[in-house]
Amino acid sequence: MFLAHTATGRRWALVAGAAVMSGALLTGCSGGGTSSSGGHSTDTINYALPANFTPNWILPVGTASHLNTNNSSISQSLWEPLIAYDGSTGEVGWNKDNSLATAADFAKDGKSVTITLGNRHWSDGKPITSRDVEFWFNLIKANKADWANYSPGKAPDNWTSLKIVDDTHFTIAFDKAYNKQWMLANELSMIRPMPQHVWDKTGDSDAVSDLDRTAAGAKKVWTYLNKAAKNISGYATDPLWKTVSGPYTLKSFSTAGRVELTANAKYDGGGKANIKHVNLLPFTTTDAEANALRAGTVDYGYINATDLSQEASFKSKGYTVKPWAGWAITYMPYNFNNPAMGAVFKQLYARQAIQMSVDQTSLSKVIFNGTAVPTYGPIPQGQASDFVSPEQKKNPYPFDTAKAKQLLTSHGWSEQNGTMVCTDAGSGDDQCGSGVAKGTKFEMQVLSQSGSTVTDNMMSALQSSFSKTGIKFTIKTAPVNSVLSQSGQCKSGDPGCKWQLSFFGTAGSWYFPAYPSGDSLFQTGGGSNFGSYSNPAVDKLIAQTTTSESPAAVQEYSAALAKDLPVIWLPEPDYQVSVVKNGLGGFAQDSLANFHPAMWKWTNK
């Protein structure tokens, strides 16, 4: 995912998933607290999950194929983060009501931080202590390669130690001084205290011990927890998931994607649930979800940007339309190790020709009905910030298919039957480039999100503009969970390296934490660098963004990737156009793409 934010802040915030029939779905929704007369129960809310996207992970540690915002939001409702750094209050910052920590005091030299925990308890009555943080820390240290948020040199590599001071205080030491904003918002916010007294074992019948305190033991515990987390049908009954710290507990979790949360009666934090029952509802298509809105069986849903002309109709049914802006970028990653096209993708001129064939302005206006903004680099451009470089703002590669075609022909390609073919192989300046064989056709396939008319329309528009450059672009679709699982990092000879381009959804490919560094996405070996992009000069720039307090470091990184094109940049749309039942309030729509059900409340009852 994954703008996340993982999620965490670094994650794929994707629109897609559940394989259920819309008729059955509407039947399932009809009893969810919404009366036939159009009113609603004060203790229930029905929230529509993005179309064709099935929540599929409960463990509060993300792996590469499970980094999506819905998973993260559900998990954080059950297990509160150490530091909830989000936009739930309307501004991105530390929301201490939704956090287990009450203070983070950095040492004067910037090389360590001491965290203070609040007087909090697990739902079984046991206190939440520094030991629960150490448990998470030990699991991540021993299993970092499996953690989707891992990037070499970053957490947990740069956390040299965690020392428990007492039950409510601990100190994390760093390998050097870091940008405090980055460390707080992007690294410390990833820490998820977990119930060591329940989870520190290797089997259901095992007694809990201190297994996590050795690397070998931590690996066994990790294996056990991940195996349990793959059993989606068992989430609601497995004792593992009963001990929580958050404002909600889990009532049900179906493989079809429906999730029911109920208020945690033992919760003792500042973010207590206002609404007792929360039903998270899956849909196969946005049309099915819009029909549920019209029927009154959804309290908080969405419509396509193309349906904004119907706003008056929804208002007449007692809804308010609220666009939900996101702190994100949208793109299609290249697979630089694909055996057929990887060598082509590694040629900067080829990526330039591809980018010049993307008419972001028209896509934003026509496909997204004006609810998207062109994005020309790695920093979100839908919201003003000091992070975007002038180079990214001005678009280094404006739309021009004629110039794109000329760029290819000047590098050894000739158009044959409408498709460019490499006719002058070699590594010279006017040849196809290293590794590109003579006769190679400029044909690339995208594995794209299914179930979204907006996505289908955008892919068709791209197919048309690519054809004008002489690039054949074919489209294969699948639910996003499947797209994610088929688009991992790989080596050219691996069976799973057949994908060439991937697209994870029109709600935004990647939602950042507050500080938009690219260590997970574009650093060599980054946990969510799915296409295996690698540029040593960019690695140095990314490192600078994590240590320097100056916005100039991020701007240099922004400029470099706007020019080097590690992915195909695409318009960044609003996360969604929300349709909210009148009287439902108490919340801001988080620009980091989390939803926070504990904050929702019926204000007119």
UniProtKB/TrEMBL annotation:
SUPFAM superfamilies to which the protein is assigned, alphabetical: Periplasmic binding protein-like II
Record flagged with keyword ATP-binding: no
UniProt subcellular location: Cell envelope
Keywords, alphabetical: Signal, Transport
CDD domains: PBP2_thermophilic_Hb8_like
Segment forming the signal sequence: 1-18
Domain Solute-binding protein family stretches: 100-526
Family: Belongs to the bacterial solute-binding protein 5 family.
This protein's name: Peptide ABC transporter substrate-binding protein
Source organism of the structure: Streptomyces lonegramiae
